Every structure is written in C-alpha cells, then in structure tokens.
C-alpha cells in the first residue's frame, strides 16, 4: 500500500449540488423509500458493467465472486449497508460521478415547475431517477467504499454529509465493487425493517437481473420476464416491468411478447406507451429498447439499431443469443443479426397495430392520435413495409363525423361503383378545407373526399402513390375524373357562348393564370382555382409562404375554372355583347379571380380587391 493510506483529503461539492439535495428532499419527502430504488438501480448498473467487462475484455478482478447485491440492516443500531460486486469506482470516478449532478434534466424540470408555480409531481421526479443523492433523505452521513473491477486499482473510502464537503482516503478492500453504509435518521428507522425493504424491492426493483440478499437471505426472483411463457405473464407484472424499462409513470397501451426461433433467435417484450412522451421529458432519462445478449445487459438505448425511426416510441427489451459477446458495442451495432431482428420487430409491430385497428378501434385511435404522425413518416423511409403502413393510416373526410377517422380500406369499401380514384384535399384543418369550392361537385355527387390536414401529410403524400390499385388524386388539381352526367344542373352556356367568355377571361387575366377553362366540378360557386396535374400541392405552397412570410414567393400560375351554369357567368356572357360594359366586365372578372385566390389562401394584397368591390357596389346601388 502507498504512503497515502489513511490520509484523508478534503474536497468541496459544486454549489448546485446543495440545491439539488434541497429540491429532492423537498419534493420527495413523502417518498423517502425512493433512495433504495436509486441505490439498487446504481448497483445493478454497476453489475451490468462488470459483467459486460468480463465478457468482452476478460480482465476483471475478484473473478469468482457472485454478481449480486447484498443489503444488511441492523434494526437496533439503525445501520444500513448495500453492497454490490459491480464495476466499482476509481478515485477519479468517485470525484467526477458522485460529486456532480449528472442528470441536469431533473434539476431543470424541478426549476421549471417552481418558476411556473406548479407543484412538482413527486411521482414524476421518482421516475426520472434522482440518483445517489436521494440517500441523504434518510441519512445524515454516508460512507462509500469502493474498488474498481479493473486490475491494478486502489480502493477508496468517501465520506460526506451531502452538504458542502466530502473526504476521500485510501483503504484496504479486496472485493470488487461498492459498499454504501449509513446510520438511518431517527424519523426513517422503518428502513431498518426487513419487511419494509422487501416491499420496496417488490415495488420498484423486482426486475433487477441480479440476486438481492437481505441479511444474507436471497430475496428477489431474477427470472427475466421476457423469458417466461406468454400465459405466465400477469398484467400487474407487465405494467411494473413497463414502468421499469421505460421510466414512464403510466401503464402501457399494450404489450407484444415475441419468442423467435429459426434464422434468428431472440425474445422480446415490447410496449406501446399510452401517450407520446412530452417534449419536456425528451432529454430526461429517455430510454429506448434495452438490449440483452444471452441475458447479459448490453445497452439501454438500442432503439436506433433495432427499430426504424418511425417506431422509436416503442419501449421494452430484446434478448438474443445470436450476437457474439466478446466484441465491442460498435461491432454489435453493425452486426447483420441486428438488422434481421429489426426487420422482424417492425413487421410484428405493424401487424399488432393492424390487429387493434380490426378488433379494438378505440385502442387503435388512441394509439393513432399519439403516434400516427410518426407512423406516417415511415412512408418516406420504409418502402418495404409501405403497404402495411398505408393500411394503418386514417383521415377525416367529408363523410366522417367530428373526431372520427376513416381508413383507405373503409374508403374503398364505400366508394361509388364507378369511382376509380381516391380523392383528397389538403388544408390547414377540416373546417377550412370543408369550405373549398372544389368540393362542390363531390358533395353533389356524394363522393367522399379525404382531408389531409396533418402538416406531415404534405410530406408523405408523394409516397402514397396508390392503394389497392387506386391512385390518389388531389381535387385541387386539374383533370379529375368528373364524367358523371349531371342532368339536374341548371341550364348552362352553350359551346359557342362558353368559348367566347373564356376568351374574355383570358384576355383580362393574362399572365395571372395559366389557363381559363370550363369547370365540371363547380356547383354553387362561379369560379375556382386548380393546379396543373403535375403542379405543387396548394397546401405546400401555403406552408412555404407561412414558413417564410417576408421572403419572395414562388407562386405557380394556376388554372381558373369557371362554372358554365352559374348566373354570374351567364350574365357576363350577355353583357360582353355590348362594348360599353367593358369596365364592369373587367372589374367582375378580376374580382372573381381574386375571390378565388382569397379562398385558396393565396391573396397577398387585398387592397385592390376591396376598392373594386366598393366601386361595384356603387354601381349596383345607383
Ligand atoms: P445516475 O445513476 O443517474 O447517473 P447517480 O447520482 O445515482 O446518478 O450516480 C452517479 C454515478 O455514480 C453513476 O452514473 C455511476 O457512474 C456512479 N455510481 C453510483 N453508484 C455506483 C455503484 N454502486 N457502483 C459504481 N458506480 C456507481
């Protein structure tokens, strides 16, 4: 041993630590038992790291000692110790890891809630993982004794009251891992009771994958839940396990238990959360899929390698025997085994969603409201599964009641007999889209039109192409199939009259429009704008404008369709016979055009529109 042995060195914590401690004690005072969950969780992490080190690098001291957690309590003296045979800490690690607030997310959350004057939800704090410092809720002074599992390291003792200072000294300790000991505060002596400790472990740490001994008796069962047979899984157990792997505080929407044998072997227990995580919690202990290799914990965020982006909300565990263990994590990530598992998980999850859609609509719609947006983006990245994804999409339509959705299959099932295409209309929301005059023909002929009102719809639409042999057609585009005969419509202008009025429109509007044509889709409105069949979707144009209101805008010239049966158009046809009406005709046509722009959301400057309207009103009231 070195000459430093027994010599204590004094250190100071950073100022923020004291504040964290105050906050933890303040917000968790009703749940002091959280300290035990935190210490067990740290011990379990340390054990996982040691087991991984042993398997990958083979160099680990004290090789024969069992990977386990030992808790010892002395009821009379109120002494509490928890010891693990994990990775341990070097002097630097003790100073860097124990003396800092690693999870600043927790601190930020508490601060934010306090600034807003909102109560800090203790349950939520509990789920974040408050860390080692929660031990100071139950003890005034804590001793850590630790020896790193890496060969050739020195053991240390760390002592602190958690307030400002701590000491470190070298000690003799030959067993690998960390031992934490303290005397319980008077008010917290219940934690020296064995039964109390057992109940806390049951509540919070039942899924720790290492044996836990309490006063030398083995307590927890370590059978991994995902290795059990499906029918053995109890709902409460699943719920607890979900909370454990996800840090969520609510129960999951559903689970999926897989046991695959064949080309690739793995077991998985996956969960879909009930709700999308709040943005606020994104950086706070957000964990993805946990990956185990032959029961050895590898990492707690393997989502990137095991799930496509659009399913990244899935939580749970994947355990496989097919990965070589003695390789680095980086190699694991690039193993073809991971790719195969990913592809199976994706298919199974999509099949599960489809099953909900068929048999439990309420569950499905709940899921879709939370994760539908993300799911849709799969159309842009997962071409292999795009048919399966399309099957899962739902939209509002001209025929759905408020809040209800329709799938493509349902749409097709109730399509008109001679209808060949799936019609849609983009817009900011259902209300605004419903006012679009392009809908008139479809309403009149009782043809359903889907509303694509989700901002991501615009970006995924180009990858919809077709569904079950039916093309998707925007009703704001020219060349829709409106061949239905329509005998009930009012008398229309004849061919010759139409030709002449179209010419007048074109002359007056000039470059402002790409073309002026007779409309087959308008019923009540005199005119509407549509885009060329290859043109940019009008919603996309509106969005580009909204994103950059100051900039110059690319504005594609549109096609103006006019209604040959509308009274106003018919009047114009009569008026144009007389030269003296040319000013009025000019005003009316410009007014019609700008009114169509206005409805389209694309009238940039309403000044002319208003002054023209005023002069037309003056004429009308003369
Ligand atoms: P968190 O666990 O959220 O990172 P903690 O305050 O609980 O925060 O712990 C901080 C760090 O201290 C851990 O990340 C780990 O590096 C180290 N540590 C804590 N307990 C142990 C232990 N029993 N064995 C080894 N290292 C530990």
Question: What report would you give on this structure?
Answer:
The chain folds into 3 domains: 9-218, Heat Shock Protein 90 (2-Layer Sandwich); 225-360, Ribosomal Protein S5, domain 2 (2-Layer Sandwich), CATH 3.30.230; 489-622, Heat shock protein 90, C-terminal domain (Four Helix Bundle (Hemerythrin (Met), subunit A), Up-down Bundle). Helix content is 38%, strand content 19%. The protein contains 21 helices and 23 strands. The strands form 4 sheets. Strands 1-6-5-4-7-3-2-8-9 form a 9-stranded mixed sheet, with helices on one face. Strands 16-15-18-17-20-19 form a 6-stranded mixed sheet. The protein has a 5-stranded mixed sheet with strand order 10-11-14-12-13, with helices on both faces. β12 and β13 (296-299) form a beta hairpin. α10 (336-359) packs across α11 (361-377), α10 packs parallel to α12 and α20 (582-600) crosses α21. It is elongated and about 110 Å long. Adenosine-5'-diphosphate is lined by residues 38, 42-43, 46, 84, 86-89, 97-98, 102-103, 129, 131-133, 178. Adenosine-5'-diphosphate (ADP) binds at residues 38, 42-43, 46, 84, 86-89, 97-98, 102-103, 129, 131-133, 178.
Lay out the secondary structure:
Blueprint lengths: L8 E4 L2 H14 L5 H23 L12 E6 L4 E6 L6 H8 L5 H13 L5 H7 L10 E9 L7 E6 L4 E7 L5 E8 L9 H11 L7 E3 L2 E2 L16 H12 L5 E9 L5 E8 L15 E5 L2 E4 L3 H4 L8 E6 L8 H6 L1 H24 L1 H17 L8 H7 L1 E4 L8 E2 H6 L8 E5 L3 H5 L5 H5 L5 E3 L2 H6 L5 E2 L2 E5 L20 H15 L3 E6 L8 E4 L7 H10 L10 E5 L4 H9 L6 H19 L6 H15 L1
Parallel strand pairs: 2-8, 12-14, 17-18, 17-20, 21-23
Antiparallel strand pairs: 1-6, 2-3, 3-7, 4-5, 4-7, 5-6, 8-9, 10-11, 11-14, 12-13, 15-16, 15-18, 19-20, 22-23
Helix pairs in contact: 10-11, 10-12, 20-21
The structure holds adenosine-5'-diphosphate (ADP).
């Amino acid at each position: 041993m070195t000459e430093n042995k027994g010599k204590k060195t004094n250190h100071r914590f950073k100022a923020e630590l004291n504040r964290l401690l105050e906050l933890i004690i303040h917000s968790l005072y009703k749940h002091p038992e959280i300290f035990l969950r935190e210490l067990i969780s740290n011990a379990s992490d340390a054990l996982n790291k040691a087991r991984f080190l042993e398997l990958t690098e083979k160099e680990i001291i004290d090789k024969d000692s069992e990977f386990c957690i030992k808790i010892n309590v002395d009821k009379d003296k109120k002494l509490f110790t928890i010891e693990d045979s994990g990775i341990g800490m070097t002097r630097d690690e003790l100073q860097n890891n124990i003396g800092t607030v690693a999870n600043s997310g927790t601190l930020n959350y508490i601060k934010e809630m306090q600034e807003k004057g909102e109560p800090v939800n203790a349950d939520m704090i509990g789920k974040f993982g408050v860390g080692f410092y929660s031990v100071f809720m139950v003890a005034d002074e804590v001793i850590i004794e630790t020896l790193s599992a890496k060969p050739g390291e020195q053991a240390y003792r760390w002592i602190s009251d958690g307030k400002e200072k701590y000491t470190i000294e070298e000690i003799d300790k030959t067993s690998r891992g960390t031992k934490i000991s303290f005397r319980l505060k008077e008010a917290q002596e219940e934690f020296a009771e064995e039964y109390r400790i057992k109940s806390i472990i049951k509540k919070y740490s039942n899924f720790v994958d290492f044996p836990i001994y309490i006063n030398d008796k083995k307590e927890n069962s370590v059978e991994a839940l995902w290795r059990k047979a499906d029918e053995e899984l109890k709902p409460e157990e699943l719920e607890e396990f979900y909370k454990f792997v996800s840090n969520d505080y609510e129960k999951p929407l559903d689970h999926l238990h897989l046991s695959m044998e064949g080309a690739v072997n793995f077991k998985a227990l996956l969960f879909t959360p009930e709700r999308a995580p709040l943005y606020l919690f994104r950086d706070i202990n957000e964990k993805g899929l946990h990956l185990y290799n032959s029961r050895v914990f590898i990492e707690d965020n393997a989502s990137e390698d095991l799930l496509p982006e659009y399913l990244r909300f899935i939580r749970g565990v994947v355990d496989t025997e097919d990965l070589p263990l003695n390789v680095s994590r980086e190699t694991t990530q690039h193993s073809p085994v991971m790719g195969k598992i990913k592809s199976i998980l994706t298919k199974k999850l999509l099949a599960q969603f489809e099953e909900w859609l068929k048999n439990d609509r309420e569950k499905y719609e709940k899921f879709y409201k939370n994760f539908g947006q993300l799911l849709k983006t799969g159309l842009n990245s997962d071409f292999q599964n795009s048919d399966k994804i399309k099957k899962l999409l739902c939209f509002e339509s001209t025929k759905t009641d408020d809040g209800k959705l329709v799938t493509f299959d349902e749409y097709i099932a109730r399509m008109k007999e001679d209808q060949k295409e799936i019609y849609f209309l983009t817009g900011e929301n259902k209300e605004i889209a419903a006012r679009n005059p392009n809908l008139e023909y479809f309403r009149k002929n009782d043809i359903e039109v889907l509303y694509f009102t989700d901002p991501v719809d615009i970006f995924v639409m180009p990858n919809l192409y077709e569904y079950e042999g039916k093309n998707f057609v925007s009703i704001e585009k020219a060349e829709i199939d409106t061949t239905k005969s329509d005998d009930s419509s009012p008398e229309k202008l004849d061919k010759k009259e139409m030709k002449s009025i179209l010419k007048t429109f074109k002359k007056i509007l000039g470059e402002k429009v790409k073309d002026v044509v007779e409309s087959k889709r308008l019923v009540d409105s005199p005119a509407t704008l549509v885009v060329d069949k290859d043109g940019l979707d009008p919603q996309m144009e509106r969005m580009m404008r909204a994103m950059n209101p100051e900039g110059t805008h690319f504005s594609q010239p549109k096609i103006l369709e006019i209604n040959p049966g509308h009274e106003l158009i018919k009047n114009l046809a009569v008026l144009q016979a007389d030269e003296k009406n040319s000013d009025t005709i000019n005003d009316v046509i410009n007014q019609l055009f700008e009114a169509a722009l206005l409805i389209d959301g694309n009238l940039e400057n309403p000044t002319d529109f208003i002054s023209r309207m005023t002069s037309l009103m003056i004429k009308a009231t003369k």
